[in-house]
Design goal:
5% strand, mainly alpha, globular, single chain, 6 strands
Length: 575
């Protein structure tokens, strides 16, 4: 019997990548969960963590008179979903941060889908590994603030625009993302949207306008409004109050970003921080990204229309989101996926291959070898840690970092060709696979393990917790911050049942302490001489030694070295 045998296509683009994709997502989930609750709250996480704590206490975080207005709608709305881990696991850094894993994985999936559409499968896997190893993904994917949702929101708008078929449901979902993003993120999303549209223009230009467009736009707006009102719900409020809440939250979403965009654009550019933020986000892929952008500009006429518009879209987004967020790099996160895609296209040779590409590959490979050797040597030098710091090295640093260093060196050594396990399982299939995996392992070692493991040496968290314990034990009339407004993470760790007050100066302190018998006062050490004079002149005295939180003369050092964040806490009584 005659059987027609078809010739097997063994080109890299035809090889099934299901196993590699699963490995990429499993690796991303592991990176996002590694010692997630080890590091105390960072400044950008305080607002979300404090909102979750207030929600669990039954407080209304959407009240118009809230102390901390939100940067965006969605940041506080997501706190309601984040309540579930906190209810199950208690208030902890892990429960506050674990929800950020969802938008981080959405960002990864959207970036890989769009890269597959533009550059193909090898570049898709390369973009996935590069994104997992980027500092922006590791840092913000493990952050309680959920700012990475902005990047995921933006990239999925581009994914929907890039669909070959643009049916009614896909159009409706796109308009829902656009209108809800505009309301929930305010200027942050609006500044990113032109870059998304430009990058996706070649694919949607012939499919976007149809007889269904008006209906899908109306449906998207209606869905965004309905969900907005639903998420503003709180028991005990009148229906008419929903409109006031919505307008207030909309104002909060636009207030800070719009004001700084319009009134201080020049000073923002003078600082030039938007130029530094992008390298921070895409680190360690600065060299591949810069190399690719340079050669795409040099060989612009040789690029396809899709590659040109991707380059223009990334440039538009970089310029517009740099107007306001130059001081706060979390609002430039939407740049991360586009520049990772560009870098992956250059690494895999899908854009233009410059004459210096071999030099770049060699530089990245030798850099990974040197950094991997340092990571392995951590285990050898750990006795010196005791001699220098008079304390033991965290176990995660002593064991996990050398292991990841060995994995990085192994990826370099065993990347011997298309049949090697490194290229086969990673899905990248190229001479660059080894150093991509090596740098990913090294960044995980430093940013997901090393820095969080060192968080146990930060003294801010125990100080605020001791303040809260003293407030619960001594039951002072008030807790007063002298000459300094309390930050959200301080209130979260203190977890006091009553309100915390702020006294901006002597007059404010006398007003807040009027009629009290006791008070717990927290202040910077530089303000203590002024505070001591106020105590002497107004009939107050510090408590006995057992009542005073003390360490090295009542001082606790944390934060920067300038002395700005050196705090003292005193329980004071009327003489």
């Amino acid at each position: 019997m005659d059987i027609n045998h078809t010739e097997l296509d063994l080109s890299p683009e035809s090889i099934p990548l299901r196993r590699s994709v699963w490995l990429i997502f499993f690796s991303a989930a592991a990176v996002l969960l590694l010692i997630l609750g080890k590091n105390p709250l960072l400044g950008s996480e305080g607002g979300s963590a404090e909102s979750i704590r207030l929600l669990l206490d039954g407080k209304d975080i959407f009240a118009v008179d809230r102390t901390f207005p939100p940067d965006s709608f969605i940041q506080l709305w997501l706190c309601r979903i984040q309540m579930l881990p906190a209810l199950l696991l208690g208030n902890s850094e892990f429960s506050w941060r674990v929800f950020s894993m969802i938008p981080a994985l959405l960002l990864l999936s959207g970036t890989m889908l769009l890269t597959d559409e533009i550059f193909g499968r090898r570049a898709m896997c390369c973009a996935g590994w590069m994104l997992i190893g980027s500092y922006g993904f590791i840092y913000w994917g493990r952050n309680a603030g959920n700012y990475i949702f902005l990047a995921a929101w933006s990239i999925w708008c581009a994914v929907l625009l890039y669909r070959k078929n643009f049916p009614f449901i896909v159009q409706t979902l796109f308009f829902f993302l656009v209108f809800s993003g505009s309301m929930w993120w305010g200027s942050h999303f609006i500044l990113a949207l032109p870059g998304v549209i430009v990058a996706a223009y070649p694919r949607w230009k012939g499919n976007f306008f149809s007889r269904y467009t008006v209906f899908s736009a109306l449906a998207g707006v209606a869905g965004a409004l309905m969900i907005s009102l639903l998420l503003l719900w709180h028991p005990g409020i009148a229906p008419v109050e929903y409109a006031l809440r919505f307008l207030h939250q909309l104002k909060c979403s636009f207030l800070e970003s719009f004001a700084q965009t319009c009134y201080a654009p020049l000073s923002a550019f003078d600082y030039g921080r938007h130029l530094v933020n992008l390298p921070r986000l895409i680190f360690p892929w600065i060299l591949p990204a810069g190399f690719t952008v340079y050669w795409m500009i040099r060989k612009y006429k040789e690029l396809s229309a899709e590659h040109r518009f991707l380059l223009w879209g990334a440039a538009v987004m970089f310029m517009l989101t740099g107007v306001f967020p130059s001081r706060r790099w979390q609002f430039q996160l939407c740049q991360l996926p586009l520049f990772i895609m560009i870098a992956s296209g250059g690494v895999t040779g899908k854009t233009v291959v410059g004459k210096y590409q071999d030099i770049m590959v060699m530089t990245m490979r030798w850099g990974a070898a040197v950094a991997g050797s340092f990571a392995v040597s951590v285990f050898v030098v750990f006795p010196l840690w005791d001699m220098i710091f008079n304390t033991s090295m965290p176990g995660w640093i002593m064991f996990a970092i050398p292991v990841l260093g060995l994995l990085a060196l192994g990826a370099l050594v065993f990347d011997t060709g298309g049949t090697s396990a490194v290229e086969k399982y990673s899905g990248m299939r190229g001479s660059w696979s080894g150093y991509i995996l090596a740098w990913t392992c090294l960044c995980i070692a430093v940013f997901a393990i090393g820095i969080p493991a060192l968080g146990e040496y930060r003294t801010g968290k125990p100080f605020w917790q001791k303040c809260g314990q003293l407030a619960e034990q001594a039951k002072p009339g008030k807790v007063i911050f002298f000459n300094d407004a309390p930050e959200a993470q301080a209130l979260c760790y203190m977890d006091v049942s009553g309100r915390v007050y702020n006294a901006e100066n002597e007059e404010g302190f006398l007003r807040e302490s009027d009629g009290l018998k006791t008070a717990l006062v927290i202040l910077h050490c530089r303000d203590y001489p002024e505070f001591q004079k106020i105590l002497e002149n107004s009939g107050w005295k510090t408590g006995e030694n057992g009542d005073v939180i003390h360490e090295e003369g009542h001082l606790y050092l944390f934060g920067n070295k300038s002395g700005k964040n050196i705090f003292s806490a005193y329980l004071i009584r009327k003489k």
